[in-house]
Structure formats: C-alpha cells, structure tokens
Amino acid sequence: MLEENPMSSGRGGRMRTNSRGFSLVELLVVMTIFGVMSTVILNLYVNVVRSTTSSEEVVEVQQGLRIALDQVARDIQMAGFLIPTAAPITDAGASQITMMTASAFNSFARIDAPGGANTATKFAAGDPDGVTINVANAAMARLFTEDSSFVRIVNPLSGDQIGAFLVVGVNTPAPPLISSLRLEPLATPLVDLNFVPGDMIVQVPSPANDATYPNVVTYQLEDDPASLDPNMMVLCRIWRTGLPALTIANRNTNERIIATNVSGLSFEYLMDDGTVETAVVASRRDEIVGVRILLTGLTEDAKTRGSKIRELQTTVKIRNI
C-alpha cells in the first residue's frame, strides 16, 4: 500500500508542509494581555510619580514652616531688648503681632576691653575722626558690614543712645587676638561721647533713626499673588522705625516674605496671672510673658491631587520683660 508523502505536491503542484503559526484568536489574546499589562504598569508609574511629587511638596511646605516659625520665635524672644521703658509687644492680635526691638536686623555686638578691663572709650567733642572699639567675639563683629552698617551705641540699663555711627572697618583676627569694629561718627560730636565695656553696638536701618524710637517688627499674613487659591497666603515680616501706622509705603519698603504656602497664623498670649488670651488690649500688653504660635501650611491642590495641611506650633517666652 502506498503512503502519501507529506512533502509531496498536491493538486496544482503546490508543496504542503506541516509547519504551524499563530491563529488570529491567539494573536488577539496576546495583544489584549499585553495591553492590560502596559496599562497597569503605566498607572503604577504615574501613581509613583504623583506620590513622589506630593511627598516633595509636603516636605517643602514643612521646611518652610519650620524656618518661618524659628524666625518669628527668635524675634519674639528678643522683643524689648535694650528698650527697658516700654512693653515689648505693642500689638497683640489673634493673627498679627507687633513688637519693639533695638535692631530689626538682630545685629548686636557687646563692647569689650582687652583683659576685661572696665576702661572707657570716648569720642572727644569736636573730633570728626573714628575710633576702634573692641567687641566680645568675632561672630558679633561679622554681623556688621563695612561702609553700609549704620549703628548706634546703647546703654543696656537705661536704653539711652550714646551716639550714632557708620561702621568703616571690621577686624576679625584669629584668637587670642581681639575682634573690633572701626566706627566713624555720623556728625561731629558736640560733647564727649563715653562708652564702657558692656555697652551695646546696635545696627539700625538708617542714620536718621531717632534715639527715642526703637525698631518695630510686625508679622502678618497677606494674599499670595502667585496663587489662584484664595486660601493660599504668604507670611510677611515688616519692619520700620518708630511707631507710625502700618501704611502701604513703609510696608512695601521694608517687607520681606519669609514663608509661602501658608494658610493660617494664630497667636495666643500667656499672661503673668496664668491666663491665656487670644488678643490683648493695650493696657495689659505689659503683662504678656509668653506667646504660643500656630502656623498652618497648605500644599498646592494641583500638585498633590488635593491639598495637604501641615501645622507647627511652639511656645516662646519673652526674655526682656
């Protein structure tokens, strides 16, 4: 009996083989599985990217809040420094605070003398030249800048201004040498100006700063012009000399944004009788011994698929009361 060769030609002379391929159904099944897997992987990647972006945004907001809270706390701690005759806090509101300080820049240097000797230094009446004054350490000296730092020398007990000067030299040699500042009077002194170790050199905004008017620092929230979110605010530090009203002019001139992505700022005031107030009238502001600060941050809704809220709180004791 003859068997048909599978490689032999059939009708029409075509050669038949037994090789096999994928059917259309099989191809469709594979493509469907591949599509599903690709969609899953893509969604996973997108979620990871969004999660990373959200985490970075939250961390950025938290870091900004910490830096801002530290700045506010430091200013409150120094409120009233070298101003012994007035209450440190001049406006104690629920969402705004104003305080007095000798220097809005927080730049102070204690006058020292070689060997700790309690010897006086003086500008002689009619002498327009400068004098070199030793200061306690190099870190204090570095707070001042040659030819741009206006300073006054203040008696820490009375708060009286001994004189107003321009820093024309900063000397910070390696220890054990003494650091010093070279000062020139802004006007030729009419009388001898005497100062001793322990008196303070204080940086002020301008040579026209009046001795009877300390620097004033205000913290408040303002609308963020860069955000469309009505809840998004910026925390501003505003300083000025004296106690004028907080006008647009002095606000724009001396305003600095210290935190963005802020949605809330609140203060509570610890009184010397143990009570806590959310706002303090003028007659009781000299009774404030501490301030509790609550700062709230908010992430951008578009970046984090829903706003994330973070809060930081601290309590600060006023040192100069």
Notes on the protein architecture:
The chain is of the alpha+beta class. It folds into 2 domains: 60-102 and 214-317, no CATH class; 108-204, M1 Pyruvate Kinase, Domain 3 (Beta Barrel), CATH 2.40.33. The protein has 4 helices and 16 strands. It has helices at 24-78, 138-141, 248-253, 301-304; strands at 89-92, 97-101, 108-110, 121-123, 131-134, 150-154, 161-171, 180-185, 193-195, 200-204, 215-223, 233-241, 255-271, 276-277, 288-298, 309-317. The strands form 3 sheets. Strands 1, 2, 11, 12, 13, 14, 15 and 16 form an 8-stranded antiparallel beta sheet that branches. A 6-stranded antiparallel beta sheet has the order 3-10-6-7-8-5. β13 (255-271) and β14 (276-277) form a beta hairpin. The radius of gyration is 35 Å and the shape is elongated. The model has no long low-confidence stretch (mean pLDDT 82).
Order of helices and strands: HEEEEEHEEEEEEEHEEEHE
Mean pLDDT, rounded to whole units?
82
The main sheet comes to: 8 strands, antiparallel
Number of domains: 2
Beta-strand proportion: 25-35%
| Helix fraction by DSSP (H/I, runs of at least 4) | 10-25%
Low-confidence runs: none
State the distance separating the first and last CA atoms.
123 Å
Give the radius of gyration. Answer: 35 Å
Q: How many DSSP H or I helices? A: 4
The secondary structure category is: alpha+beta
Gross geometry? elongated
Counted beta strands: 16
